[in-house]
Each structure stands twice: as C-alpha cells, then as structure tokens.
Design brief:
The structure holds two protein chains of two kinds. By secondary structure, chain A is mainly β. Chain A has one helix at 23-26, and strands at residues 5-9, 18-21, 32-37, 40-45, 59-61, 64-66, 73-75, 92-98, 101-105. The chains are: A mainly beta, B alpha/beta.
Chain lengths: 113, 414
C-alpha cells in the first residue's frame, strides 16, 4: 500500500476548483488532480485520457469534471469516462481528510459508496 | 409515443463521430436488436485531430480511433468497413449495398458526413493540391509538411487556419489566403480580426486574394519549382504543397437514392432527425434541419452537433423523449490559441471578460437579460459556464458577465 501524500489544507482548494500534486511526488507517472465539488474532495489522474490537458483546469459540477480542451466528462468518484472524445477512464485515487489537510494515496482505489 | 414499435434491425451508415455515437446511444437506451455500422473507409476515426495532433505526429492511427475494437464487441455492434451502401428501404425492411447484397433493417441512420469542397479553378485537382477530411487525406499530406516546405493554404476558416498553425509549428514557409475575414459572421469583426492576425504574428504570409488558376508541371529537374498559384491580385505564389480548406459538401447520394427529400446542402430532417422516408434518419454533416413549419434552419457542421443528432435519432428509434436541446458548441486550435464558441456570440451586445487581445479573455453576448453566446481565447471555463447559463436561461446582468462568478451563477448561487 502506497504511502499517503499530504496535499495541503482543504481550505486551499476553493469550491469548484482543483489543485495538482505534481508527477514527481505521486510516483504514478502522472500528476494527481484534487477536486473540490461542493465540499466533497476527489482525486483523479490529472491528464485527460484523450489528449494532453490538465483535468484540474476543467469545469467541475455535479460529481463530474469536464476536460478544458474537448469537453470529455469524467466521474469524479470513479474516473469513468462519460462522453466522447475520450474513450478511456482516468485513475481515481483514495483521499482522506486529516486535521483539515487532504491526504491522497496514489494508486489506492477509493471505496465505492 | 406509446404505440412505438422498436425495430429489430438497425443499420447505421457512416462511422464518424455521429455514427459511432448513434450505436452507443441506442444501446444506452436499451435497444437490444441487431446493430450494424457500415463505413466505406478502413478505420472509424475522429476528424478534429487530423489537422493538429495527427499532422504534428503526436498521435497515430490508433489514437485517432473513435472507439477501441473491444467497445464495438461489448456493445454488440457489427462493424463492416470498406463497404458502401447503394440505397435503403426501411419500410420494406432492408439496406442494399453497392455489391447488390442486402441486410435487414427497419430503421436506418445516415451519418454519411461529406466531402471537402473542391477548388473550382483550373489546376485545382493537381498532384500538389491537398484537401483534409479523412485519414487518407492526412496521411497523403503529412510527408509534405517538412521544415522549409512552401505551403499555400487556400481558405482561412477553421480547417485552413488550423492547418496553417500546424504547418508553421512544423517549420513550413506558410502563405494563407482568404478573400474574406474568416469567422466574422460567427464571432464579430473584432475577435475574427484578432484571430486572423495570429497568422502573421506566427510568421505566415497573409493574403486576401482569390485563386484564379494553379499551374502544375513546370517543375525543374530538381523538383524545386512547385505549383504556381495565380491569384486575382498580387504576385503568383509558388508552393510545394497547396492545401484547400473552403468548406464541405454533404454526402447525400444514399438518401437521394432512397427517396428522401434532399436539398443542395443536406438531407432534410425534422427535430427528431427524421427524413421524409419513414424509418430513415440523418444526422451530422449530411443532414439539414428544418423547423416545425418545414422552413430550413441553418446547417451546423460542428463535431458536437453530430453527437447531439445521434442522441436525438437514437431516442426517436427507441421511442423515448429526445434529450434537451443544448446551445451549439465548438472549438478550434491554431498557433497556440484555444478558441471555444457557444451559442451565438453576435446575437447581442458583446461584453468583454478579461482584457481583449490578452489571453485568457472571452466575449459574452448579452441580450434581454440573458447570455445568448460566448467565445473565449484560452479561457474555456468561461464558455463552459456561459453554455450552462444559456441552456438554463439564467437571468444575468452585464456586470455579472464582465466580472462575476459565472460558475456560481450557472448553479443558481449568485
């Protein structure tokens, strides 16, 4: 089981916004985007599975993120791809809030509700 | 639609984004009958990356595919490539291929797209002249876009401008000509001019003449002379490659052979993508919508419009309510600029968000207390928020549009 990474205070991620834990820290071969959707925190691979775009810069709403380049949408909980042009999912990562800080566990699949 | 009978066999003609989406949508809506997708090409591929990432060598054939083979198997779609349809008779329950064989089909969706409009001048069909619509076109063009190659782009609309950007990125010596200011009608003069100015800023030569003739065959023995493009004004341009991007012509021959009403630019369809022939639908670039009174509406050639058409056709075939209409959206990438457009940016008063000409910035079109359109340069979030404001008919003020939190407004949390 991978070690968690402290991605900083929850308060640093505004509602509807996201931050990126850089590739050098995640060890997964991609950055991890950490999203705040109405106070819920989610983590996905940052790079869209279609072309080279940062999902952290996407439009976040209703449990989904919409890629800033071509509008493919991904489920924030599971990383499932919801519409074209992307056809492949992105990896979700488990997050935990400890003492107001976001901890992300690269490669750990989040529990399904 | 309670008396609706679902067909047992559906055939989709054309494997671009519209045709492939139709297959996925039919299965998503619970259609369990046989589903066949026929395409005359060899690869079911996406088109937007052709002018950019494919020519730049960033993605290959596999990367262009709309879906992987496993997907078609999972969706239980029979894919028949390299085959062409002659005519369809959904009322009689069949589709006839050009080899004379027949397939059962009580519903048929035409997603046949179109072909690149040919340059109607002498020499417009010479060896050095290229069009860009298919993977084959892109593979034929790509080896010519080398460092220092003299590239003449005719037409500076979406495809022409994108190819010019790609050719510059590859180090080509680019000349681009268009007698009009491209996108002026769609975006307004200011933004259209700002976008067009990027060509010169990135080192392309920009002309505004029409082409009169292209003379081929005068190459020297070292092959250095190139095609000579004679223009309505100014000196002729000598080019190694001529790329024409002057629009497309809808492919309507199957519809016409099947008895559907066809106009010069498309197969006429209603709001459910139904043609005049029962059981025959048309979507995407080959279709031309009409309103409830039978009047033709503007034809929309964008990528996402084909996806929306697919969703409506699938809903009609399955006898369920169509999805809600969404404002038209499209994008274009050239010279490092990511343009996004939604709705009609020229229908109202244009309000600038950010500083015009200094990306990221956007213009929002404001009329009767609502957003009616938007266009952004390297600021997609503004267009995505504007899209929701348009679709939700959210009341806004001019001040909101210039400086407000559009995402919150779109969620009704102003």
């Amino acid at each position: 089981m991978a070690e968690g990474i402290n991605a900083g205070p929850v308060s640093a991620i505004g509602e509807g916004e996201a931050i990126v834990v850089p590739e050098e820290q995640t060890g997964t071969g991609d950055g991890i985007a950490i999203f705040n959707d109405e106070g819920q925190i989610y983590a996905l691979d940052d790079t869209c599975s279609h072309e080279d775009a940062s999902l952290a810069e996407g439009y976040i709403e209703d449990g989904e993120v919409e890629c800033p380049l071509h509008s493919s949408r991904f489920c924030l909980k599971t990383g499932a791809v919801l519409c074209l042009p992307a056809t492949q999912p992105v990896r979700p990562h488990r997050v935990e809030i400890r003492d107001g800080a976001v901890w992300v566990f690269p490669g750990e699949v989040p529990a399904t509700p | 639609m309670s008396d609706h009978t679902r067909p047992e066999h559906v055939v989709v003609v054309g494997g671009g984004v519209g045709g492939v989406s139709t297959c996925g949508d039919l299965r998503r809506l619970g259609y369990t009958g046989s589903l066949t997708l026929i395409d005359s090409g060899s690869v079911l591929h996406d088109r937007p990356p052709l002018s950019k990432d494919f020519l730049l060598g960033r993605i290959d054939r596999i990367g262009l595919c709309l879906q992987r083979e496993e997907w078609f198997a999972q969706q239980n779609v029979t894919v028949r490539t390299g085959e062409t349809v002659a005519r369809v008779r959904p009322e009689e329950g069949y589709v006839e291929l050009t080899d004379g064989s027949r397939l059962p089909a009580e519903a048929v969706v035409l997603a046949t797209g179109g072909t690149a409009r040919r340059l109607p001048v002498p020499g417009g069909d010479g060896d050095r002249v290229h069009y860009l619509r298919t993977l084959d076109d892109a593979e034929r063009l790509q080896p010519h876009l080398t460092d220092g190659a003299r590239v003449m782009v005719i037409g500076a609309g979406l495809i022409g401008a994108e190819i010019a950007g790609t050719a510059r990125a590859l180090g080509c010596d680019v000349t681009i000509t268009d007698p009009a200011l491209p996108l002026e009608a769609a975006l307004g003069e200011d933004l259209a001019r700002w976008l067009h100015t990027r060509h010169a800023e990135r080192g392309a030569r920009v002309l505004d003449a029409d082409v009169e003739t292209i003379v081929h065959g005068l190459e020297g023995t070292d092959g250095s002379a190139g095609a000579i493009v004679h223009l309505t004004a100014g000196e002729p341009v000598i080019a190694d490659v001529v790329i024409v991007g002057i629009g497309m012509v809808p492919e309507t021959s199957v519809a016409a052979a099947s008895g559907a009403v066809v106009v010069t630019d498309g197969v006429v369809v209603d709001a459910h993508q139904r043609t005049s022939v029962p059981g025959l639908y048309a979507i995407g670039d080959c279709s031309h919508p009409k309103d409830a009174h039978g009047n033709l509406l503007p034809r929309i050639e964008h990528w996402e419009a084909a996806i929306h058409g697919a969703a409506r056709a699938a809903a009609a075939i399955c006898g369920v309510e169509p999805p809600r209409t969404q404002a038209e959206w499209y994008w274009s990438d050239r010279h490092g600029v990511h343009l996004e457009v939604v709705g009609n940016p020229v229908a109202g008063e244009q309000i600038v968000r950010g500083t015009f000409g200094e990306p990221p910035f956007a213009i929002l079109s404001f009329a009767d207390g609502q957003v009616v359109g938007a266009a952004s340069v390297n600021d997609p979030k503004t267009v995505r928020a504007a899209r929701r404001l348009i679709d939700r008919r959210t009341p806004v003020t001019a001040e909101d549009l210039a400086t407000g939190d559009l995402r919150k407004l779109a969620r009704g949390k102003s």
